[in-house]
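queue> pop job 88
queue> type: inverse folding (structure -> sequence)
queue> payload:
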């Protein structure tokens, strides 16, 4: 009888203990009895590259990368996917047989799929506000623009980062960036996406009420057992739909899994199961 080889994958971040990725990839693997393992790695803040190389040398096949290492993963990769290249951030590493490293960014694909497939929300011709210009924000700009929105406005606590991010992608359409204060003159938005880390701190970004109206769809990339301050704010101010990032998490994981294993897993049963057990 031939021995089954278990191929090794993991997610690296700091902190990492909260990660749901091992549960999600475990469920994907179960769907077809895929012989893979998926662990968490707490990456020391000053030893990201060393930790990744060690995992690779021990036979690791791929890694997911989360806060705060996505930019370092981008620098480490020898070859980049279309989205990763422009985003400047990588959340999926593939260790190829020739020893080289491929980097992809699946965050944007995950977000778009969650909007369109899971929630039947179209982004085409919509006025979209993206709050945050960190790793997550950078990763979703190009996929958002490919949906042909009416415009994309990026607001960030450090306005220069939003302005720079908008300038980086303004060949793709109507994109502007600035401060939260600037939003007072920008009218209302059909879609408001929170890609700031404010929710992790239990803080509501300083978003003017004038941005929201009764048709607005509000999306917090953060996911957790309880609604975030932004989700409460959106409900209190009459948004038509308020969503969190659990679907994005599952969809971006599915895309990573497909890159590694060559097969797209089913996401709905995984999402349903997480919603019950959360
Ligand atoms: P990051 O690279 O550290 O960027 C943090 C961003 O949040 C920056 O734009 C920062 O602004 C802003 N920010 C931090 N504290 C703030 C506050 N108190 N008020 C307003 N803005 C604040 O983090 P990230 O990787 O982009 O992650 C951001 C969020 O997205 C996290 O909650 C993460 O869990 C979530 N996320 C979810 C998924 C998913 O699959 N659902 C995927 C990726 C990320 P400055 O530039 O001024 O510092």
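queue> result:
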């Amino acid at each position: 009888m031939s021995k089954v080889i278990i191929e090794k994958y993991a997610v690296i971040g700091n902190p990492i203990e909260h990660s749901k990725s091992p549960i999600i990839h475990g469920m994907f693997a179960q769907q077809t009895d895929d012989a893979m393992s998926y662990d968490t790695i707490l990456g020391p803040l000053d030893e990201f590259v060393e930790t990744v190389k060690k995992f690779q040398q021990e036979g690791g096949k791929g890694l997911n990368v989360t806060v705060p290492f996505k930019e370092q993963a981008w620098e480490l990769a020898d070859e980049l996917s279309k989205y990763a290249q422009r985003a400047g951030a990588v959340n999926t590493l593939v260790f190829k047989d020739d020893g080289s490293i491929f980097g992809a960014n699946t965050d944007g694909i995950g977000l778009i799929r969650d909007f369109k497939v899971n929630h039947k929300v179209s982004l085409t011709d919509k006025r979209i506000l993206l709050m945050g210009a960190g790793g997550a924000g950078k990763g979703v700009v190009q996929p958002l623009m490919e949906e042909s929105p009416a415009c994309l406005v990026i607001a960030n606590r450090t306005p220069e980062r939003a302005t720079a991010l908008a300038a980086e992608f303004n060949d793709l359409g109507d994109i502007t960036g600035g401060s939260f204060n600037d939003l007072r003159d920008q009218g209302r938005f059909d879609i408001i996406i929170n890609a700031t880390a404010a929710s992790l701190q239990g803080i509501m970004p300083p978003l003017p009420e004038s941005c929201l109206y009764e048709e607005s769809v509000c999306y917090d990339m953060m996911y957790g057992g309880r609604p975030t301050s932004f989700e409460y704010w959106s409900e209190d101010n009459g948004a038509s739909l308020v969503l969190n990032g659990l679907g994005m998490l599952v969809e971006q994981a599915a895309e990573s899994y497909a890159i590694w294993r060559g097969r797209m897993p089913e996401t709905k049963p995984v999402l349903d199961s997480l919603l019950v057990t959360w």
